[in-house]
Amino acid sequence: MGPDPQPLAGLEFALVGPGRVGSSLALWLAAAGGRCLSVAGRGGSRRAAELAARLGASVAPGPELADERAKLLLVAVPDAEIHDVAHRAAARRRRGVALHVSGALGASALAPLAAAGCRIGALHPLHAFTAVEEDPSAARGIFFALDGDAEARALGRRIAEALGGESAVVPEELRPLYHWAATLAAGGIVTLVATAQAVARRLNLPESAARGYGKLASGALEGALAAPSAAAAMTGPIARGDTPTVEAHFAALARAAPDLLPLAVELVRSGLARRAEAGLETPEQKALATRVERSDLLDRARDRVLTSSRPKPA
To answer: Domains in the chain and their CATH numbers?
Structure first.
C-alpha cells in the first residue's frame, strides 16, 4: 500500500487570519484531507471571504465566532494580536486544540483559551511565505517548531508529518533566539544581497552587476546547503585568511561607504568564528581573526584613507 493521500481526513479546523501564512496552511491542510469550517479575518475581509469560498467554509466576522465544532483553531495573526484573538475566542470555545503559528512566541500566548478548557500550542513553519502558496508540495521538507500541551504537540506533529515536513519541540524560553536565527536565515540573507546591490548602484555599475550579485548569492547558498556544513562552503578572503584583501576592503569602505564598515567587520568576525567552530581554522584565518579582534586591521585601513587624502607636496 502507498502513503495515505488524505492523512488529515477527519480533521475539522477553523482559521483566524487569512494572510499569507494562514491561507497557505489552510490550503495545505485541506489538500491533505482536512476540512475548514470557518475563516475569520478583520471585519469585512475580502481575503477571508475568498478563501472561505475556495474551501467551502463559512466566514466568521471575528475569532469569537469561529466555528465551535472545529477540533483545531488555527491562529495565524501578527504576534501582537494573538493574545487578543485568544481572549475573544475563549468567550465561546471550551474544547479542542488551538495552535498559533508564531515563531517568536510560545504556547502561553494562547493562555485565555487554556483557561477556557482548550489545549494550546504553537506550530511555526520555518519557511518564508512571500505569497500565498497553494501547492501543498511546497510544504515538503519544512521544519515545524512545536510547543504546548501534549495533545497540541501531538496534533502539530501529525500535521507536519501529513504535509511532508519535520517537527520538533522548541520550548518557549528558546523561541526568541530561535526566531532571531530564522530572521537571519531569511531576512538577513536578503538584506545582505540588497546591500551588495546598493553598493553596485553607488558605484554606478550597470544593473546587470546588481543582478549578478543576486545570482552569486544564490549559487553560494546552494553550495552551502549541499556541503557537510555551511562553514565548509565559505569562499573568498575570509575562507583564505587573506589579510591584505580584507584590509583593502575595509579601506575602500572607509573611503566610500563608511556606514557599511561596521557590517563588514562583523561579517569577517562571524565568518572566522564559524570556521573555527567547525574545526576548519587555518593559521592564516587565526592571524586574521587576531588582527580583527585587536582592531589594528581596521585602524590600518583608516590610516590608508587618511594618507591617500592628504595633499601631495608640490
So the answer is: 12-170 (3.40.50.720), 178-307 (no CATH)
